[in-house]
């Protein structure tokens, strides 16, 4: 159970941190509204995929489904347990919807990014996330409002290996996201993002469109974070607006990238792994810890997050694995050119 807890927290957290790294680490956008894209991904799983499944199986999909989702989701899960093809199809549909909706919400967030900078943009993005969370919490037809919504289990076909199958799939998606992030890092787009981050004036002098590059970063980052939200909702089989807290789905990813190394994808994943391991340790040994420290272990995780951010800022501002330069040519070719220049001199 402890390893499952670690794997889920690490997989979801690493995807969120990688998405945040594209916006913050590569482009320098103060993204404090990460929960907005996560909610959109969860909405794709709960609000859309579950209703598509209901339509396919001839069940109510409107307001009645939102009010009685537990009963209908249980009936659909029973059918999916004997129909792996339908379950996998719904899983793929969920990911496609999550990517599309996440990209749309990220592109929409790019418009204030053209006019606002630094703290003002960060507060605006944070506000957008809170507005969406409040809407989903108070408007029942979408995801059940205050009661939340149950989601049919697309991993039920694995029978007794349901959790293992879901975790393996989440970790596979995490690897895919890491590969995509690394490809972006080494691409002309990635270098343009870093040019904007380091000096917008210099980037404009070299003919880079700042608004377009910011829009690319927000669109890609939000699409990735939306996938994380969808996977989390599918694993828990439920969606409830306030289960997606600012702490877990915005500030923890910030802690991951600060600990691992802003701008370094491998470092970001390492930060997610270390933090997830620490959280698992606190959960597993909270009773033993309570006999040693004079505070409730529930608050120890929050203290750990704040302490890590402060310590990293003070003593290791570039993280455990600082960002490495991304060369336009392989290092071997660069060394050969350098040797030729030296020999010609």
What's the layout of helices and strands?
Elements: H1 2-26, H2 34-56, H3 63-67, H4 69-81, H5 84-115, H6 118-138, H7 140-143, E1 149-150, H8 162-185, H9 188-198, H10 200-205, H11 210-236, E2 238-239, H12 246-260, H13 265-284, H14 286-290, H15 300-315, H16 331-344
Pick out its properties:
mainly alpha; 16 helices; globular; single chain; ABC transporter involved in vitamin B12 uptake, BtuC; 2 strands; 1% strand; two-stranded antiparallel ribbon; 345 residues
Task: Quickly name the level 1 CATH class.
Answer: Mainly Alpha
Low-confidence stretches: none
Structural class: mainly alpha
User: What is the count of distinct domains?
Assistant: 1
Please state the second-level CATH architecture.
Answer: Orthogonal Bundle
- Helix percentage range: over 70%
Largest sheet: 2 strands, antiparallel
Mean pLDDT equals 86
Based on CA atoms alone, the radius of gyration comes out at: 22 Å
Strand order of the largest sheet: 1-2
Residue share in β-strands:
under 5%
Number of helices: 16
Along the chain, the helix and strand elements come as HHHHHHHEHHHHEHHHHH
Which fold name corresponds to the CATH topology?
ABC transporter involved in vitamin B12 uptake, BtuC
What general outline do the C-alpha atoms trace?
globular
Q: Could you give the count of β-strands?
A: 2
Alpha carbon gap, first and last residue? 64 Å
How would you describe what is shown here?
The protein has 345 residues and is mainly alpha-helical. The chain has a single domain, classed as ABC transporter involved in vitamin B12 uptake, BtuC, CATH 1.10.3470. It has 16 helices and 2 strands. It has helices at residues 2-26, 34-56, 63-67, 69-81, 84-115, 118-138, 140-143, 162-185, 188-198, 200-205, 210-236, 246-260, 265-284, 286-290, 300-315, 331-344, and strands spanning 149-150, 238-239. The chain has a two-stranded antiparallel ribbon with strand order 1-2. The longest helix is centred in the N-terminal third of the chain and has 32 residues, at 84-115. The model has no long low-confidence stretch (mean pLDDT 86).
């Amino acid at each position: 159970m402890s390893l499952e807890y670690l794997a889920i927290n690490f997989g979801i957290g690493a995807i969120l941190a990688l998405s945040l790294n594209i916006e913050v680490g590569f482009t320098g956008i103060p993204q404090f509204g990460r929960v907005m894209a996560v909610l959109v991904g969860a909405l794709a799983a709960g609000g859309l995929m579950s209703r598509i499944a209901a339509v396919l199986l001839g069940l109510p999909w409107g307001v009645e489904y939102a009010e009685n989702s537990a009963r209908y989701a249980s009936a659909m899960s029973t059918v999916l347990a004997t129909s792996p093809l339908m379950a996998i199809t719904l899983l793929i549909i969920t990911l496609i919807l999550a990517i599309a909706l996440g990209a749309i919400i990220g592109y929409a967030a790019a418009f204030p990014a053209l006019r606002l900078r630094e703290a003002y943009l960060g507060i605006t993005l944070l506000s957008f996330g809170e507005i969406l969370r409040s809407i989903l919490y108070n408007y029942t037809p979408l995801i059940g409002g205050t009661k939340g919504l149950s989601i049919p289990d697309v991993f039920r076909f694995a029978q007794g290996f349901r959790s293992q199958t879901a975790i393996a799939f989440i970790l596979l998606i995490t690897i895919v996201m890491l590969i995509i992030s690394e490809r972006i890092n080494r691409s002309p787009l990635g270098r343009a993002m870093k040019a904007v981050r380091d000096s917008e004036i210099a980037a404009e002098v070299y003919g880079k469109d700042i608004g377009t590059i910011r829009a690319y970063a927000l669109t890609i980052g939000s699409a990735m974070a939306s996938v994380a939200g969808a996977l989390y909702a599918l694993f828990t089989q439920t969606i409830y607006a306030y289960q997606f807290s600012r702490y877990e789905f915005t500030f923890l990813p910030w802690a991951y990238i600060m600990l691992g190394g802003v701008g370094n994808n491998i470092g970001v994943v390492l930060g997610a792994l270390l933090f997830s391991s620490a959280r698992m340790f606190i959960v597993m040994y909270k009773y033993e810890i309570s006999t040693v420290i004079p505070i409730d272990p529930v608050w120890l995780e929050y203290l750990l997050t704040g302490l890590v951010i402060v310590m990293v800022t003070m003593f290791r501002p570039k993280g455990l694995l600082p960002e490495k330069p991304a060369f336009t040519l392989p290092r071997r070719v660069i060394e050969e050119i350098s040797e030729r220049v030296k020999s010609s001199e």
